[in-house]
């Protein structure tokens, strides 16, 4: 089977939907809510202490650096989503624009991100609940998250969509309350609300801010996940690019603003454990009631994020199953009534049970590796798209077509180098395993991997 040529792009106009395919039923507000729910904006407070320590108190600056990197990458995702409106995200884009073999490896690396993120989300939510209710074991909460989330996703994307809107609204209200109380506490102590410290840290250090940004990028994972809904979105070639940019921009704005006020109030509150600093801050600025509301908001955010993360992971596995990269009969199947990839959803649920035997630190150490590999290659794919368009006689401007994607790739690679050794080792081993699988599928690279269905 011949390798896909870079100039053979999918038509932006989607054909009529045949039976057995995903149904187009989502609009911009639903896709945007999906992306923001995946981000779980309130997790910015849950991870505040760790990033604050790494950045020397410059958490807002670290998030700003991460936001710039994500916006550059989001622009590349938007261009590619407009040209290639299919499920599969970075996996599909790299296969179409760069190489079948590299596309497979990007998809494999992305699986480390997509498939394990739901487990991490459920584990974090269970850990917070276990800390509040220590008599109930962690595994009980994890099982509860998995069962309810999986049921919602199997019933259909519209059911998950309605649940996401409610949960996301609750989450945003809790963040707003936390931010207002933090600002009030700062002024009540006679401190100014205007300061550069949350952006530069004390002492100021670019390397510390960059290290903080590498961790902060975890909070952005999900802006790209909306591309996995391309085949379920109305007018996807316009809606998906807009949703990508809005998800990154709105999510980044929430992260920068909320951490700014949290850093201002941080020195005024005694923090017992840096890993749960936001809990201590919530109690310090609003008493037991605020800390209880914060816990509810955090769990709600993790639940909403789990719905979106599982849905996204299952769509990636469905796309790879449809291609034959994963067993087609199992992963490429959809339910008759709801047209959801039930088997893939259940596989993600099964992986989630591994969280019963792990801690948060171990499970989150390798997530960013797969994401950064995918982000870098999406920027490379955007450059390849510019070359393909120019070859077809389309005018391509140098700044958005070449320079911005190149800058995005460089910034992402810089963040990749800032990950800890454990993340690089685990990620590298996973990628090496992918090379072995690819070698087997291609009979020693003598033939291309299973081909993407151009009509998908």
TrEMBL record:
Transmembrane segments: 31-51, 63-81, 102-124, 136-156, 163-184, 204-223, 243-261, 281-308, 343-360, 366-386, 398-416, 422-442
Protein location: Membrane
Membrane protein topology class: Multi-pass membrane protein
GO BP terms in the entry: transmembrane transport
Biased composition (Polar residues): 1-11
Keyword NAD (UniProt): no
Alphabetical UniProt keywords: Membrane, Transmembrane, Transmembrane helix
Amino acid permease/ SLC12A domain location: 42-422
Record GO cellular component, one term: membrane
Protein name per Swiss-Prot or TrEMBL: Amino acid permease
Source organism (scientific name): Propionibacterium cyclohexanicum
């Amino acid at each position: 089977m011949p390798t896909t040529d870079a100039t053979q792009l999918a038509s932006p106009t989607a054909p009529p939907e045949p039976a057995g395919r995903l149904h187009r039923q989502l609009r911009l507000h639903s896709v945007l809510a999906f992306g923001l729910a995946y981000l779980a904006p309130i997790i910015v407070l849950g991870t505040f202490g760790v990033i604050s320590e790494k950045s020397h108190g410059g958490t807002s600056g670290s998030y700003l650096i991460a936001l710039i990197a994500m916006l550059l990458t989001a622009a590349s995702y938007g261009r590619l989503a407009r040209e290639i409106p299919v499920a599969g995200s970075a996996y599909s884009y790299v296969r179409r624009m760069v190489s079948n073999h590299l596309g497979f490896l990007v998809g494999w690396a992305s699986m480390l991100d997509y498939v394990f993120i739901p487990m991490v989300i459920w584990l974090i939510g269970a850990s917070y609940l276990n800390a509040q209710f220590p008599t109930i074991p962690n595994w009980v909460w994890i099982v509860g998250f998995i069962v309810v989330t999986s049921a919602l996703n199997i019933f259909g994307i519209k059911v998950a969509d309605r649940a996401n809107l409610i949960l996301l609204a609750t989450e945003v209200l809790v963040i707003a309350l936390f931010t207002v109380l933090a600002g009030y506490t700062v002024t009540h102590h006679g401190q100014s609300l205007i300061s550069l410290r949350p952006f530069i840290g004390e002492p100021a250090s670019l390397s510390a801010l960059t290290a903080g940004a590498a961790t902060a990028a975890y909070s952005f994972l999900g802006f790209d996940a909306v591309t996995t809904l391309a085949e379920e979105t109305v007018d996807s070639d316009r809606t998906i690019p807009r949703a990508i940019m809005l998800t990154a921009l709105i999510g980044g704005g929430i992260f920068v603003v909320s951490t700014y006020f949290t850093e201002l109030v941080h020195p005024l509150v005694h923090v017992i454990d840096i890993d749960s600093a936001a809990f201590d801050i919530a109690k310090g600025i609003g008493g037991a009631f605020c800390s209880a509301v914060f816990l509810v908001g955090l769990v709600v955010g993790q639940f909403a994020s789990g719905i979106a993360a599982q849905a996204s992971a299952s769509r990636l596995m469905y796309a790879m199953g449809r291609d034959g990269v994963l067993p087609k009969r199992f992963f490429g199947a959809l339910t008759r009534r709801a047209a959801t990839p039930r088997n893939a959803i259940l596989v993600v649920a099964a992986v989630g049970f591994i969280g019963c035997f792990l801690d948060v630190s171990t499970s989150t150490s390798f997530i960013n590796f797969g994401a950064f590999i995918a982000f870098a290659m999406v920027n490379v794919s955007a450059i390849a798209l510019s070359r393909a368009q120019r070859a077809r006689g389309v005018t391509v401007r140098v700044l958005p077509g070449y320079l911005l994607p190149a800058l995005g790739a460089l910034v992402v690679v810089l963040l990749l180098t800032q990950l800890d050794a454990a993340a690089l080792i685990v990620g590298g081993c996973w990628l090496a395993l992918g090379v072995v699988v690819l070698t087997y599928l291609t009979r020693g690279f003598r033939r291309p991997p299973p081909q993407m269905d151009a009509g998908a």
